[in-house]
Design a protein that fits this description.
By secondary structure, this protein is an all-alpha fold. It contains 14 helices and no strands.
Length: 280
């Protein structure tokens, strides 16, 4: 994996500290929409690999953002970042500029998918996270817990209802995750302080993507579900949830020459359809 990144002229964590790597990638300028579109034109029409490299470099900071979300699984954060970088590279190759979305919107799902696969292949818990319910709990139990320590029966029932699993599965997974050799919480690796790598006073574009699609775990499911929407619904969902600057209902109403209420209805129906199609 490290060799593959180096072969493409991309930064690798080998031989340098995590702090140095993060500092380096955050110094790489972000791309404007126009710059991004221009680079994709060079890549797709001229086969310019340097353009593809520039696209990847400008998005490495977001891989760090995603990878830190999985710091509690007991695996080296450096490895999670490197794996996420592979997902980013794949997304650049597969991205279709004609869809009029920003690369980040598309890439975040490939980044997550690669990290998920890596965790499931390497973490100690893989032996018990084999069913759909167990995998769902593996990746979601932590964010649904309201406090440290074991879940109560009441908590288990509430989480079970939210995730559509049994309360027994919740209790069982919580016990397994709480064992010392299967630590559920952040490791003692003091070289990684996630909060230190984020600009607290600036809303990162990835926040919008993550909030809008936080339960999406499979990029292929999302892509297929999005394609099932009619063109107008696709445009409205993209404008409302998949762009750096979220368009207002009024702006979209003027664009499509319909009422604000109609835009709201189309958005609501489209999001409902997406949730139904990508539900685990």
């Amino acid at each position: 994996m490290t060799t593959a990144l180096a072969a493409h002229g991309l930064p690798v964590l080998s031989g340098q500290s995590l702090h140095a790597y993060v500092d380096a990638v955050y110094k790489i300028p972000k791309l404007t929409r126009e710059e991004e579109e221009g680079l994709f034109t060079q890549f797709h029409e001229q086969g310019d690999v340097n353009a593809a490299r520039s696209l990847v470099l400008a998005h490495l900071r977001y891989v760090v953002y995603v990878a830190k979300q999985y710091a509690g699984y007991g695996l080296p954060v450096e490895d999670l970042i490197q794996q996420g970088n592979i997902g980013l590279m794949q997304s650049v190759k597969r991205f279709e500029p004609e869809r009029k979305l920003r690369l980040l919107t598309f890439a975040v799902h490939w980044i997550k998918a690669e990290i998920h696969d890596y965790i499931l292949k390497n973490w100690k818990l893989v032996k018990i996270a084999t069913t759909k319910a167990q995998r769902k709990l593996f990746f979601n139990l932590r964010r649904h817990k309201t406090h440290e320590g074991p879940v109560t029966v009441s908590d288990a029932r509430q989480i079970a209802e939210t995730l559509s699993v049994s309360a027994d599965d919740v209790m069982d997974m919580d016990q397994r995750l709480s064992r010392p050799d299967e630590s559920f919480h952040q490791t003692d690796d003091s070289s990684f302080a996630p909060e230190g790598y984020l600009q607290s006073d600036v809303l990162d574009p990835l926040d919008i993507v993550a909030n809008a699609e936080s339960d999406v775990k499979d990029s292929e499911q999302l892509s297929a579900a999005f394609q099932h929407l009619d063109p107008r619904s696709q445009s409205i969902v993209a404008a409302r949830w998949m762009q750096e600057k979220k368009q207002s209902l009024k702006e979209l109403a003027e664009t499509f020459d319909i009422s604000i209420e109609r835009v709201r209805q189309i958005e609501s129906q489209a999001l409902k359809k997406l949730r139904e199609e990508i539900a685990l």
